[in-house]
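The freezer alarm interrupted the setup, so I double-checked each line after restarting. Inputs confirmed:
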Amino acid sequence: MNATARILWIAGSVAVTALLILGWQLIADYGGIAPVFLPGPNRAWAALVSGFDGGELTQLTGATVERMIYGWVLASIAGIVIGALIGTSRLAREYVAPMLEIVRPVPVSAFMPVVMAFLGLTSTMVLVVIAIGSIWPVLLATVHGVSSVEPRLVEVGQSLRLNRFKTMWKITLPNAQADILAGMRIGLTVALILAVIGEMLTSENGLGWYVLQAARAYHSADLFAGVIVLGVIGLVSNLALQEIERYVLRWKRR
Amino acid sequence: MKLLKALILPVLLLVVWEVAMRVSGIESDSLAMPSQIAVAFYEALRDGTILRRTAETLRAALTGLAIGGGSALIVSIVFGLIPAAARLAQFSVEVLRPVPAVALIPVAILTLGFGYAMEVSLVAFATFWPVLIYGQSAIVNIEPQLLDVSRVLRLSTLGRVTKVVLPATLPRYFVAFRLATAVSLIVAVTVEIAANPLGIGYELMTASQSLHPDLMFALVLWIGIVGWVLNGALLLAQRRLFGPAAMVELAR
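Predicted 3D structure, all chains:
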């Protein structure tokens, strides 16, 4: 497929999205649904613009993103370190890894009531839950990546007389990079989800609290504006991590 | 032997937990001894609370999965057979897919109120995307010769779908639905914890807020068991039914 055709297809698919938004507008205007429940895209957009103009949405977005990133960074660091330790030790793989598999199927949101019982409805609680929740994908991916290194590479390391730390740094971790990054991408999605729920439950300042408040007050335009911002956060964070993955793993494609 | 090694650490942790709490004599509103948790678990199982609540959660999760996964199945087949449709929908899919289902909780509350309908619709939204994405890649990966054969045999579109496309993609769709089942349970429990007064998630939330740590931990354990059994059963079925044909776990 040549470049022009590709651009035309992309333009076409954007046009389809535009048509969908137009359909939404028509349903909102003539569909007989009360505007309390369904705002048209025009009203959602107006709420979005005025929210960012007044600074309220900017501040709420900042709060949610900050929470999400802090929890995710904590989880990623801990996940990589613990995962690398478990993955490289045969003892830990046999004794510790199975326990991780037992905990894995528990939906991470189920940890929220537990942490809540200890820390109450606080922002610390939300941060801890985000960290606990998004550590799993990173941790399990790291264990998998680290323990599936090509044995011949490890032998090379041995004949070069690398010590354990250097083997880890020069051979094991670079090999696990793809797995770790994929785990971190899932972890970031989990972090966003938990940030939103945490804010809903604790009424901590943020978009999760904002959309719930808007729904309770029947401010449907504000509600949709908040949902759109959350969607954009999800989209942008995912794309950013994909780009980072592509950049970091560029040596693998050769 | 492997099982034994796997059990040592969890059992050891439980024993230390129990002994430490007994020796120190802590009375806590947020922590319970493993023995108390076991008792609470047995009680809740005997008086039917756990089973009733689990039935509510599973009902919402599986109904949502049927609606979301089912429509994704149809849409992905349409996209697979008409590549132009897939290309035209691509941008819309890429924009809608990253919206976290939990962000839609207030929208669902506003339009549908509390209850099954809102939970089911959120599960449907969340399970739609994985089945769609896996399904599309399943159809793209159909052996082209099979489609050639169907053309030579002059099968109608319906015949092509039922005789070639579905049988060839069934193993991958099974994998897609197995993963979507896990998603459906996660979303259902999450919605219950966040808002909906229904199911096992709500019971868990109540136990936490009414300071019953024994019941709370028992319920977390139970949710894990449900997820584990569900996934285990589907994995077993997948191996029995499809064998190596379904060993196509894509990168998540």
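Quick read of the result. Chain B is about 80% helix and 0% strand.
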